[in-house]
Amino acid sequence: MGRGRLLALAILSLFAGVAAGLLAAAFRLALSQADQIRGAMLAWSHGHGALGFFVTIGLCAVATSIAAWLVRRFSPHAAGSGIPHVEAQLAGNWSGSPLRIMLVKFVGGLLAIGAGLALGREGPTVQMGGSLALLLGRVAHRTEAECKALLAAGAGAGLATAFNAPIAGAVFVLEELVQRFDVAITIAALGASAGAIGTARYLLGQAPDFHVVPLSYPGPGTLPVHILLGAGVGLLGVAYNRAIVGALGAADRLDGRSPASSAAAIGVMVGLVAWFAPVLVGPGDAITQQILGGTGTVFGYNVASFAFALIFLIRFSLGAASYAAHTPGGLFAPLLVIGSQSGLLFGSLCAHFFPTAGMNPTACAVVGMAAFFTAVVRAPVTGIILATELTGSFTLLLPMLAACFAAMVVPELLKEPPIYESLRWGRTAPGSQRAPTSRAPAPAAGMAVGHSPGDFRVTTTEFIPSADS
Description:
By secondary structure, this protein is mostly helical. Helices cover about 70% and strands about 0% of the residues. It has 17 helices and two strands. It has helices at about 5-45, 50-75, 85-90, 100-115, 120-140, 145-165, 165-175, 185-205, 225-255, 260-275, 285-290, 305-325, 330-355, 360-375, 380-390, 395-415, 420-425; strands at about 295-300, 300. α3 packs antiparallel against α6 and α9 (about 225-255) crosses α12 (about 305-325). The model is unreliable at about 425-469 (pLDDT under 50).
């Protein structure tokens, strides 16, 4: 690529990042308002007995059904996290209208996550950021390779804004989206993340998303224990991947008999949980903050109690079921909840039975976040940096490295594909063999290509052909 085109790409990436940051920040602020509305609605419902009970369930079911209908009617590519769709486009399988994807992702994600589904905001912001950057590239008449670089950069900017984690956003582009180092894509990713965070922090603040008490450097003698933590979390990650794939298969079978019935059923389930335990629905940031608070309790419940185990089981099941509704929403925020829960439990047990090991339960919760992310997504560097930026816990890099090592090894030995690979290929049988990767390396930014965006269509679990491109 010539110097002029590289400079133009760098400048465009900054503009794309600013635009993606504004859009993602607006989405985060809208979700905060939706959380407040849901809380007010639940407070009203609990004051009206049986009427309030049925209103809660009905509203959750209706909101979830509308979100699923928007996806099916206007942009099937906006279902789920959207990351497999971004990856498919980077492989040259262009599909879907970027403008429709952004609109459906914003409105549908607001309805689904606002209704209480255990979905993350990062899925919508990643796909919206990538779509917005792609539009900018097309308007600027960039080549297909340059549009791909902007698409990846905009997606990384969306992730960066979702978690106030600029480095994780840029690394995610290289480790997960393109799975290789490319100079042009790296420049675009760094520029977009910088532009997005520089803009979003004016609206969202600069502090990390989670407040964690300062943690000391763990001794090197704790590394074997952290490896054990990573191995256990690796097994848990395999179970979670299979739960998501199984829930998607069950929802597809239910929808085959009655369209949109699965979304309504999942909405009813979320409404029931919201009625009895409002703090357990939604992305789960409040639960993660409770876990990282350093008190050893979650909403007043001791880690070793039956209530804590119940919270864990509810969130584990709710995350898989929510994703099966085929509404816009991501996986990362629910992963952080389960990872921090498992880490806190492991650390608490170690502190009780092996006090001389020097294990800090709060530190284990942070390490568990990175390890569980690694086990499910299979992107360890992104997981480590994301957990670090979310909590500001720079003293835990070595324990996270050890835990992520084990969390990566266990699923690989069990031949469990990363979750996005399973979603791209529609794997529905737990334990089935890994499909060959669907991502041919994207052309380098300076390579000539023989086709233009829009020439290809692709079908996967998360997105299906439609007339919206």
